[in-house]
Amino acid sequence: MARITKEYHVRKNELLDAAQELFFTKGYKQTSIESIIKKIGVAKG
């Protein structure tokens, strides 16, 4: 499987959008890094 590389600002905006959506739906304390990266489909690390 080929690695998909996106520009820094594109990936950053994806992460922030996913985090914001999860904060609104699950709450800040119930949102984890794992849930954010799972939502946008990237590997942890």
Task: Characterise this structure.
There is one protein chain. With 45 residues, this protein is mainly alpha-helical. It has a domain at 8-35. It contains two helices and no strands. The radius of gyration is 11 Å and the shape is globular. The chain starts with 7 loop residues before the first helix and ends in a 5-residue tail after the last helix. The mean pLDDT is 92. Keywords: DNA-binding. This is HTH tetR-type domain-containing protein. Residues 9-45 form the HTH tetR-type domain.
What's the Cα radius of gyration? 11 Å
Q: Approximately what portion of the residues adopt beta-strand conformation?
A: under 5%
Mean pLDDT: 92
Helical residues, percent: 55-70%
By helix and strand content, what is the structural category?
Answer: mainly alpha
Separate helix tally: 2
Order of helices and strands: HH
Uncertain runs are none
- Multimer state: single chain
The first-to-last residue Cα distance is: 18 Å
The rough form would be described as globular
The main β sheet shows up as: none
Q: Tell me how many strands there are.
A: 0
